[in-house]
Design brief:
The chain is mainly alpha-helical and 344 residues long. It is built from 19 helices and two strands.
Length: 344
């Protein structure tokens, strides 16, 4: 049966709203506690243990992972909150020197929003290896991280214009690692590279963001996304067998996989015309499996709320939100969420 929003998906998944809110609140509070212990002098002993001198990127990576986990639970009851948490994760991944941070942000934002939020500047830092005060993780130049960078560049003209390298040369170099597993579902890297190639070949939306893609191109893109959605669904079906862990939202699986949501957002684009064209085809291809529809619904709802969140996204990615006084709205109490009356 075709689902029309994530509220319906939550019901189809059989997940408890209170459990999802509790999980979101826990991981959000944990990320903020880590941020609170982060000082220029590194005086906090907990922060010192996480971001030790040998691996200074570990602290930001832990913050990023906590925000990302909170966001994947929030997707099922409050899309705006999920986007905020995802952008906080993006900022922390960038602090750790990981291209995955730019990939996450580009998967949700339009070219205009990326420009305002400093996306091109972050791209230049990642490309030059000067992504901030933190020492980049040892896998910062891994084929998977480079693939995330390539996908962001291929999808967003504003990044492609600022990229100092040659995307096609990067694509050819990465093709040697085609069997490398990516993400929680272990999707072969070659599928991601095929998607990047399709986006690099498309120039119709560079001139007119609302232009329709050629039908064959849109169909091929949708086929790749549907296959990825089905791989995610298989993981969800397998984890649902443990009913106790599943209903308490404690199953060891990403109920909403933000990596895949960002990928769907990159391929479908933030503009409504292309988004409906691509995601509509994906929906047709996975209509027989409700679980396989979760990722495309998350990408669709993210695209719906982002136009009204450009200012907030800019605050987060430029760290302007850190200049706001406590109690100004950014410090909403953990677990104090609006009801889901505005779920789509």
């Amino acid at each position: 049966m075709a689902l029309h929003n994530l509220s319906a998906a939550r019901d189809a998944l059989g997940l408890d709203l209170a459990a999802l809110q509790s999980r979101t609140g826990f991981y959000r509070a944990y990320a903020r506690n880590l941020e609170g212990g982060r000082s220029p002098a590194g005086a906090d002993p907990i922060w010192e243990r996480l971001a030790n001198p040998a691996d200074p990127w570990l602290g930001p990576a832990m913050i990023a992972s906590s925000y990302r986990t909170a966001a994947q639970y929030a997707e099922l009851f409050d899309t705006r909150l999920a986007v905020e948490l995802m952008l906080h994760a993006s900022r922390a991944y960038l602090d750790a020197g990981a291209a995955f941070g730019l990939f996450l942000a580009a998967g949700a934002m339009s070219d205009e929003a990326l420009q305002q939020a400093g996306g091109p500047q972050e791209l230049r830092k990642l490309s030059s290896g000067t992504s901030g005060p933190q020492v980049a993780p040892s896998n910062a130049d891994s084929p998977v991280q480079q693939a995330y960078l390539l996908l962001a560049v291929a999808a967003r003209p504003v990044l492609r214009e600022q990229f100092r390298g040659d995307p096609q040369a990067m694509l050819r170099r990465l093709s040697a690692y085609g069997l490398e597993p990516v993400g929680a579902q272990g999707i072969a890297l070659e599928r991601y590279l095929d998607i990047a190639q399709l986006m690099l070949a498309d120039r119709t939306t560079d001139r007119d963001p609302e232009a329709r893609l050629p039908d064959e191109l849109a169909g091929t893109m949708a086929s790749h996304l549907a296959a990825i959605g089905r791989a995610h669904a298989a993981a969800l079906h397998a984890n649902r067998r443990n009913e106790h862990l599943w209903r308490s939202a404690a199953a060891p699986v990403n109920i909403v996989d933000l990596e895949q949501t960002a990928l769907f957002g990159l391929v479908a684009g933030p503009e409504s015309g292309r988004s409906r064209q691509v995601l509509g085809r994906v929906a047709d291809l996975v209509a027989d499996d409700e679980f396989a529809q979760v990722t495309s619904l998350a990408a669709e709802q993210t695209a719906e709320v982002m136009p009204s969140m450009t200012g907030r996204a800019t605050e987060i990615l430029r760290r302007l939100d850190r200049q706001r006084r406590p109690g100004s709205g950014d410090d909403q109490a953990s677990g104090d969420y609006p009801d889901d009356s505005d779920d789509r």
